[in-house]
Amino acid sequence: MAEQQPERGVDLDLDQSQFGCSVCLDLLKEPVTIPCGHSYCKNCIEDCWDQEAKTGQYSCPQCRETFSPRPLLKRSTMLAELVEKLKESSTQQPSPSLACAGPEDVVCDFCCGTRRNKATMSCLTCLASYCPAHLEPHHSVPVLKKHQLVSATVPLQGKMCEKHNKLMEVYCRTDKKCIYHLCVIDEHRSHNTVSSASERAEQQKQLIESQKKVQQRFQERKQELKELLQALKDFKSCSRTAAESCDGIFNELIGSMRRRRSLTKQLINAQQETAAARAEELQLQLEEEISKMKMKRRDAELEQLSHTDDHIHFIQTFQSLSTSCESPDLPPVSVFYPRRSAFKPVTDCVSKLRDDIESLLEDMWPRIFSTVSNIDVVPPAPKTREEFLRYCRPLTLDQNSVSPYLEHVAFTEPLYPGLGLKDARGGHYAELIKFW
């Protein structure tokens, strides 16, 4: 009798990963084995096959082997027992972190049910897209490791040839489109075709050149923006300084005018005070003379004397009265009565000064306005033909996307010099330029 072999332990980690359902990514529940040899949860494989019932072809979610009619499913007793032992002897490992597919995401082709995960990689050999969980066999199975994996950026259907339903591997430079290699035998027989890898390398060079130009243009724009901001900052500083200087000049001019106004008022008031002093002095003299001469009494006596009939009395009395009526100490008084327009020449002079200043301001203001308006940190928008020609650049058209009604010719018409294009149907250029 053969010696009894000792019972070997089970690698729980290995069993844990191999006894999982590739559809629900969990340990098998009611495990069943389909004809190709792969095992799934009974509910998971039935849900997948329910979705394929309309086609009449039932496939394995892993190897894609098809079966017709639909295989009958029976519970795998051995797998069920092994799964139960795994649950009892070890802690179930957590499933990989997965994300549900959004409207713009590529969906995993192996996820079944309503909740389908986002695919991260596509296999160009299997022609299927995988989420991280279903992609695991491509990292562990030796045969699958040889498959070509790419990032799942777009659905694989967009990379398939509609005619042959195969992955496009060739690029037609004549028609500028990707094709399947069998398409070269048919409609692309005489066309310039290269492999997609070669065309990618060529366009990669163009992409690098474009990136360099974009980066160079970007740096130029950044430098221009920096210079513009610095120029604007300097412009604001200069404008603020100019405004402060002009404000100071106008304040000096206003202060000078105010001083001249004050001086003019002082001169008029001084003249008024001088005239008032003279009039007051004359008033005192007249009052003193009236008091001493007692003119009213003398006038009455003279009036009475003028009516006397005694000639000797008249002569003697008149001599004494005439002597007392005049004061030898006081000179004769001549009073000047000024007119209301005595100071009109002064106001006329001030009015002329005002008119001269306003005339000077009217003459100088257009010059000031023009000088200020011509200062600008940003050039104004072109309005005339000469201004537009400053931004003239040679016109070039892409021969690959130009209209089929255009052809290259030697063109020297003065209206559009150097354009080098004409309408193959003889049309006029004006409409063509409007279209551009």
TrEMBL record:
Report which superkingdom the organism of origin falls in: Eukaryota
Please give the SUPFAM superfamilies that the UniProt record associates with this protein. B-box zinc-binding domain, RING/U-box
The protein's matches in InterPro entries, at most eight in alphabetical order, are given as: E3_ubiq-ligase_TRIM/RNF, TRIM8/14/16/25/29/45/65_CC, Znf_B-box, Znf_RING, Znf_RING/FYVE/PHD, Znf_RING_CS
Task: Give every RING-type domain span.
Answer: 21-64
Any Pfam family: TRIM_CC
What is the protein's name according to its record? RING-type domain-containing protein
Keyword vocabulary terms for this entry: Coiled coil, Metal-binding, Zinc, Zinc-finger
Has the keyword Coiled coil been applied to this entry?
yes
Which GO terms fall under molecular function for this chain's record?
Answer: zinc ion binding
Annotated coiled-coil positions are 208-235, 260-303
